[in-house]
Amino acid sequence: MGFLEPHNLLWGISFAILIAIYLRSRSRHTLEVSSLMLFDRAPAPASRIRHVRIDPLFWLEVATLGALTLACAGFFVRTAASPAHGRARAIVFALGAAMRADDGSGVRLETAKRQALKLIDDSSDRDEFTIICYGLDAELISPPTTDRAVLRKAISGMHAMEVPARRAALAAALLRAHSSAEIHLFADRMPADAADDPALSSRLHFHRVGAPADNLAIVALDPGFPTTSRGRLTVRNFSRHPHGCELVVDNAGKELLHRSLILAPREQIALPFGPLENGGLVHARIVTPDALDADNERYAVAPENRSAHAIVLSSDSKVRDDLSRVLLAVNPNFIVRAQDPGGFKPSDIAGERYALAVMHDCYAPDLRADATLFVYPPRNASGSPTSGVTISTTSGASRFSSVANSAAGATRSYAIAGWMTPIAASSGPETSASGLAAVGDSAMGPVGLIGFDVRDHLLLDPDRLDALVATVDVVRALTAAPDLRIVSTGTYVSMPAAKGAEIQKPNGAMEHVTSDEFGRIRFRPLETGVYRVRAGGRTRLVYANYYDASESDLSESASAAQGVSRATHATSPQGNVRQIEPLGWLLAALALLALAVESAMLIRRAPRWGSDHV
Prior knowledge:
alpha/beta; Immunoglobulin-like
């Protein structure tokens, strides 16, 4: 026997409350006496007693509270598996990128499928199985069923994704399987804290899939700036011994780097290449095979090698200088014009169109730009391209919801429009849930919004780098090529498409995505490669990259699994399996019975006690 939710035993405090009620109600007895003084008020005589008078009603109430407390705590007993009813069992699969690895004995997910199917075939026909998987999120693949054909179809149809398997998703998957008598987890690793739940420790059977394997990964790709600075390719060896590889980097079909090298155990190196002659797509890949293919290639985009005009408007000269430096750091080809909005005249730029316009605490409606960035925008900017953005009063300094949790300076609370995507979030109540920075595509082109003030050299403060990172991310998003994007697998991609779009995935499959109320589509790349989005006669390319240090480190799978002491690798024989039988319904029935008996006793005593005592 045991408890599924031991912390709910705290409801037992209700016994103390019951005793306190009885002590208060029984400590004084009111005695009714006759009086000849009809119109005088006198205190009623009372007799004190030292001990509470306990009667059968008290014990019935104690029984009710006890039964309800045990029911809330999930009181259960272990019984032998009933062949007439079978057992409720759950099978949980990890579908992270590591399950796509081939460690020499086959792909890990295929091995897990074979083991799970054998488990189902060896079980009783009356056993009921639930199929659950997890990667970025937990997903129910098959509800509880005894139909073996349905279970086989559900298992054979699963595919591993090129995304990391999150611990939160594993916790959600185990929560879905919480009511099962047995939980079988098929994964290459399991965090040690995943089996710490005492309610799962005796029911969780961990099946480690795969063996340690050698793997190399492309950690990062920096294309540099054409004709100005060299690019860098960062490669890491996750093996525990030297490993050779062949690397290739190309730009628009032109090979920039082709090198064979040997990396020391656990070594990470950065290889320079270039500089590029022209901007555009840069593709790096590891040609030699290893255990995991998902992290063997990476894409990046270099800015075009041509000048572009940008304008920065701010009444603070220091802010103009700082924002100009950020623009030049993102794209050295920018020709930046910094000006005070007080002296700005539309006639000065008649006929000019800027690639990017940055407005700090101001709004110039006559400024023509391909993309617009509003920094600490004023409330009177409601008529700007940020239509749908509600800006309210100025608040104190907010904080970024990052590990550093650094301050962001004075912030204007705002609620962004539905067509915008948050870039940086706040951990404080000063701003809305929309975050501190956001970007989106409006009818007038790309629009960015930064809600915090950047005065007093905030962007150059080394103790508040989150502000600089958020600003750089927004600028890069606004200045990126309109028909080409580089994203990480598992992140949502949104783009304007009034009538929906057709998406061709890297494996050639087609998917139709409908538009939302804001005239945009959202989809989530789960595989590396190029996604072709066709909408309104226009084709946009989305390149998805994958890299995760924990998932790419296939040499740690065995040690991580062995560290889970509560996990077991084999199921018990059918005859020795004992299943959990919750007693919640029985305890609830006992509580209702006790209440019914108490009500009957009160009804019988009512005529004798009088209405004041019932």
